[in-house]
Amino acid sequence: MPTSAETVQALSQIVGSAHCLSAAVDTEVFTTDYRKLYRGDALAVVLPGSTEEVSQVMAWCHAHQVRVVPQGGNTSLMGGAVPEKDSGAIVLNLRRMNRVLGIDPINDTLSLQAGVTLSGARAAAEGAGRLFPLRIGSEGSCQIGGNLATNAGGTAVLRYGNMRDLVLGIEAVLPDGRVYSSLRGLRKDNTGYDLKQLFIGSEGTLGIITAAVLKLYPQPRAVSAAFIAVQDPAAAVQLLSLAKQMAGPHVTAFELVSADAMTLVCDYLGGARPPLAGSPAWMVLMEFTGTGAQDELDAHLGAVLEAGMDKGWVQDAAVAASLSDVQAFWRLREEISDAQTRTGGSIKCDVSVPLSDIPAFIEEASARVQQLAPGSRMVIYGHMGDGNVHFNPLRPADVPARDYLDAHYHEVSTAVDSLVHQRQGSISAEHGIGVAKRDDLRLYKSEVELALMWQVKRALDPQGLLNPGKMLPTP
Ligand SMILES: Cc1cc2nc3c(=O)[nH]c(=O)nc-3n(C[C@H](O)[C@H](O)[C@H](O)COP(=O)(O)OP(=O)(O)OC[C@H]3O[C@@H](n4cnc5c(N)ncnc54)[C@H](O)[C@@H]3O)c2cc1C
Predict the structure, then answer these.
(1) By the 8 A CB rule, do 117 and 140 touch?
(2) What is the pLDDT of residues 442-471, one digit of tens each?
(3) Architecture of the CATH domain 343-422
(4) Which ligand 1 atom sits closest to the C-alpha of 145?
(5) Taking Cα atoms as reference points, which of 309, 303, 318 lies closest to residue 243?
(6) 116 CA distance to ligand 1 middle (Å)
């Protein structure tokens, strides 16, 4: 295997020496994950500027058996975007490939390089009077390539679907340097296997995504939102069903927030005022959007809230009176993730179960956590509208984070995952597998599923060069 110096020398000739980093002071940010839980090292960090350069880098790595960890914004939460220690890998970061390639407002498509940030993609769409609807808290840093590789979800999945639903074509460089492309922007194409879908959600294990064609939607002209106090998750589920019946496609987001999550985030934001008086045990942030008039949309929201009150599902509601109120509501919701990081981290369980099972799952899992780790704060929040909750037990305020995580992480997350599995749920709804959940897959995927996953991996990457040690448990 080539040394770091030989690797840097060869790859500098392809991408330019300014874009091939090897000094620890330059590479550390690329070899440490977002939550600083995983720290690895790399022979080099390579920043290509074009698909052609990616192809040449991959061809060289293939010829010299050098492993490659693809990386976008490095915001993922499962340790998948950084190399492990002594992995003999390079990091291939796409941030220089950040050009919008074109917008077709008639076809409603946006073509772009994979290193464009999600906020860049949304701004480009907005500039053409359209919406690219993926919305996640890390949008300023995460990249479209990373969103595709993780099949990102977020707060508007209820209405628009996740990344898999939002893409029409991709370009990807294969481990041997060949380029696969389906950058055609077609909504219908039944000419055999839909190969692009293989790369979506593959967490960098099959190819380097270098460009994509994304779907655009009409830009909403009106937005109405409310923070709603509900008795419990069962009432929230009923309210969602009612909202869908009454307001149909206007229902864009439906996010559950527990009292502990709200207290934590208000504290993190320097004593922000909670949206509802009386510290309700459970809240929902419900958002409607539409292309019609604002007052019509407000009336839809009002009607749903009134009907929800009549049924006893809505106890209280704070309705946004302006766009800045809507933004303030979303800030409270979006900052819950970082608020946990500041406390030293929680036991992250990003899970999904059928929507109808959510109330019973939350009840059962909360009781189990209190048996295993008494006094845990129950930071439960997230995209309930699509059956996804971030179920994140957090240390009691007087217990040091390290002590709590060392004592309880494994036992609690295993217990929660097992309850999820019993309800036919998923142990990773949107954050992926990375290294954090890799070995758990063996418990929750069938032998056939695991064998097929490995067959796909070996077909595309027979030498196992791409993102080694990630996602797939050792067979
Ligand atoms: C505050 C916060 C909020 C978040 N909220 C959400 C949320 O609501 N929903 C959600 O789904 N996620 C969420 N995330 C997680 C994260 O932002 C997403 O997983 C995001 O899609 C990762 O994109 P990235 O560019 O940062 O990818 P990275 O972290 O760089 O990489 C993620 C994985 O994709 C691979 N990869 C990256 N780029 C490429 C490429 N071009 N080709 C091939 N493989 C590649 C990497 O190898 C790695 O396995 C959140 C994270 C934070 C910090």
Answers:
(1) yes
(2) 999 999 999 999 999 999 999 999 999 999
(3) 2-Layer Sandwich (3.30)
(4) 41
(5) 303
(6) 13
